[in-house]
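Data deposition worksheet. Section B asks for the primary sequence of the deposited chain exactly as it was used as input, without tags or linkers unless they were present during the calculation. Section C holds the resulting structure in token form. Section D is free text for depositor observations; keep each observation to a single sentence. Incomplete worksheets are returned to the depositor.
Section A, Depositor: J.P.
Section B:
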Amino acid sequence: MGSFRDDARLSTWLARIVINESLGRLRRRGAQVIPLGSSGEADGESAEPSIADDLEGRPERLAMRQEIRHLMERRIDKLPDLYRTVFMLRAVEEMSVDEVAAMLSMPAATVRTRYFRARSLLRESLSREIDVGVGDAFSFDGSRCNRIVTRVLSRLDGGTPARNP
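Section C:
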């Protein structure tokens, strides 16, 4: 505590100590260490309960949220280190740009750029995965397609099932 200069928040100073110690341990083990230096608004609570609040406790909603959380975690883990570190500090730890810049010893503009790029990479990655999932969920081929065509033709023919070619 004697070396704390009070020119940054205590949490920033402590986080920097942890980062330096971690990097030092990695270096002692012989790991190659690449230096990192080379928006959400708070929701106000409504006095009136909404219908959405009632839906949140349902098992299917809980399962969906858990699946989305796991998907996000996997995608965040796949971000390049330069972007993942900044993203975690800004989005998860809710640190300011200046705090992250001080902690990682880089300009604030670099923090903003890397955070923006991390969000873009996540958005692209999630979009691709969701598009593939939706395509698989609603694909129109194979046996499902045959069943649907048979039912439609059956109704068009007045109730007699059509033959599959």
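Section D:
The chain has seven helices and no strands.
The first helix runs from residue 10 to 28.
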